[in-house]
Design goal:
This protein is an alpha/beta fold and 444 residues long. 51% of the residues lie in helices and 11% in strands.
Length: 444
């Protein structure tokens, strides 16, 4: 194939890690020119150049060797004209200022509709106490636990309660990815650097979701360290969530992880049967699902043990299918639908397969931890097993692409689609096809 600069860049993105397409640095690349000797791309800042060279250069070189020749070199030029200056709004006196931030809170996530049980009681109590006493005993508050257990719900609940009690308090909820992206933009567009610091360092309550994704982001860690110090010294409240405890966070500066333990560290555990059943009953009340027997709810609660999102997702799927088919949602209907997840599971008669089950089986096969598959790590040893797990989730479950993306801690479904397409191509290899069949058999 005769490549143009644009087509070669697309080919490179196809071959990189499954999350690279959405990487903030690679999105800033403009393909410039292509010869047998070099492929030149343009980026808007030195910082972007450094990140691409540090994180992607070796992989890009391999693709260049395959697509062009082994002598073709990647050259990165910095063109500051590619930077887009953030829009500023006019104030009443005609001067310009940064567009003001919003709290970004989901009004549906409040303490009132958070179902409390043995596995989350301490997290709920400390979160509620922190919302009453900002900057007090539970500052910082660090909540950790697996996917879909309610960490984000508690973050928003804290923010919503503070805003209800004291509307003038400055509350800010962001993901660690948003913090990182805005920090990078503040470097690229120097006139917004002060606005970035003012936004985060003057918050009365800063809520940061998925703090583990700051791993390996040295520049962002440095900025967050300074932000943390400013907030803490001014007795402003900081609340963070993570998929693991501070001491288990890899590739995070020790001075940061130690600060995360200064206040309260609370684990939110997998829900037990009683809590799962209570959550299902509350969901039925909230959604006005009528005539669903305790037998059906008990059956669902026994089937899904690790993830509240999956638990609620199965309930919604059952009610939707019963409505569409005009059938009564009784225990026979539930068993028929949930044992009909795929042709394989229908033949085996096994219980419905969940994303967490697939992650565990795949991780065990490759001698990994399940957490590795849902982490932000992009090492080669993890890419293939993660893609296999995503492929099996699409093949063996009725989860939507967005549900699968959530189960793998991904921001959107394009990563799942890309992984599925990659494995489909690889199935032409007999060994890989045999591997997928082996894992499928084990799951079903």
């Amino acid at each position: 194939m005769q490549h143009t600069p644009d087509s070669l860049w697309l080919a490179i993105l196809e071959e990189l890690d499954e999350t690279a397409r959405d990487d903030i640095y690679l999105r800033q690349v403009t393909p410039h020119s292509l010869t047998e000797e070099s492929f030149i791309i343009a980026v808007p800042s030195d910082y972007t150049q450094d990140e691409i060279e540090d994180r992607f250069l070796s992989d890009i070189k391999k693709v260049l060797g395959n697509e062009i020749n082994n002598g073709c070199r990647l050259k990165i030029s910095v063109d500051t004209s590619l930077a887009k200056i953030p829009k500023l709004k006019q104030t009443e006196n005609g001067s310009e200022e940064d567009t003001p931030e919003t709290a970004n809170l989901n009004p549906n996530y409040i303490f009132k509709n958070f179902v409390v049980g043995q596995s989350n009681r301490i997290c709920h109590a400390t979160a509620f106490a922190a919302s009453d006493d900002l900057g007090g005993e539970y500052n910082p508050l660090f909540i950790y636990g697996g996917v879909g257990l309610g960490k984000t719900h508690l973050l928003h609940a804290i923010g919503n309660r503070v805003q209800d009690k004291a509307p003038k308090r400055k509350v800010l909820y962001v993901t660690s990815e948003t913090f990182m992206n805005e920090f990078i933009e503040s470097i690229m567009y120097r006139n917004s650097a002060q606005g970035f610091r003012t936004k985060y360092r003057t918050a009365d309550l800063l809520l940061i979701d998925d703090i583990q994704f700051l791993a390996r982001k040295e520049g962002t860690q440095e900025e967050f360290f300074n932000t943390f110090n400013d907030l803490y010294m001014n007795s402003n409240q900081i609340v963070m969530t993570s998929d693991r405890s501070p001491s288990m966070l890899e590739n995070l500066e020790e001075r940061l992880s130690s600060r995360f333990e200064w206040g309260m560290v609370a684990e939110i555990d997998k829900p037990n049967y009683e809590l799962r059943l209570s959550i299902l009953k509350r969901k039925c009340e909230d959604q006005d699902f009528e005539d669903i027997s305790d037998e059906v709810l008990s059956y669902i609660a026994e089937m899904v043990t690790a993830n509240i999102r999956e638990l609620e997702g199965i309930l919604i799927r059952l009610t939707t299918q019963a409505t569409i088919l005009g059938e009564r949602l009784d225990i026979d209907f539930a068993r028929r639908v949930l044992n009909d997840t795929s042709p394989l599971s229908r033949r085996s008669g096994q219980k419905v397969i969940t994303a967490s089950t697939i992650q565990k089986i795949v991780a065990d096969h490759f001698q990994l931890n399940s957490d590795d598959l849902t982490s932000a790590k992009r090492t080669k040893v993890l890419v293939f097993p993660r893609q296999i797990a995503m492929y099996l989730c699409r093949e063996l479950t009725q989860l939507s692409l967005l549900d699968i993306a959530e189960a793998f801690n991904r921001q959107n479904h394009r990563t799942i689609t890309y992984a599925y397409e990659q494995i489909e191509k690889l199935l032409e290899d007999k060994e890989i096809k045999k591997l997928v069949q082996l894992l499928t058999d084990e799951l079903t």
